[in-house]
Amino acid sequence: MAEHPNAELFRKGYTAFQAGDLETVKSLFADDIVWHVPGHNHLSGQYDGVDATIGSFLKNFEETNGTFRVELHDVLGNDEHAVALATVSGERDGKSLEDRYVHVVHIKDGKLVESWIFDGEQDVVDAFWG
Hints:
The chain has helices at 5-18, 22-27, 50-63, 122-129; strands at 29-37, 45-48, 69-77, 81-92, 95-108, 111-119. It is globular. With 130 residues, the chain is α+β, with helices and mostly antiparallel strands. Strands 2-1-6-5-4-3 form a 6-stranded mixed beta sheet. A hairpin with a 2-residue loop joins strand 5 (95-108) and strand 6. It has one domain (5-129): Roll (Nuclear Transport Factor 2, Chain: A).
């Protein structure tokens, strides 16, 4: 059975992100995307627009000296949403992170328009990012 087009789109974004191809990632986002980052750390909050969202990704890479990684386990999709199951990892200031999470996006007209991340162990993620 073929994968839903929205699942394919989301998987393409994850593949590009992991390869550091942020231009491809950016091309999958609506200009006015809203990106929600959970938690209580200096990266938590809402990022409005494609430039702010891509900027948040650059902070992840910068603050982990390029060790920030995502291992994608699965992607599911329907006509309005896609869901990724993944593990995030990285190293920062002598600390290591490994956490499973669920990532839900709303997709409209072939573009990601809103994103929510649900960390498995939010307290561990917050302690890592400080």
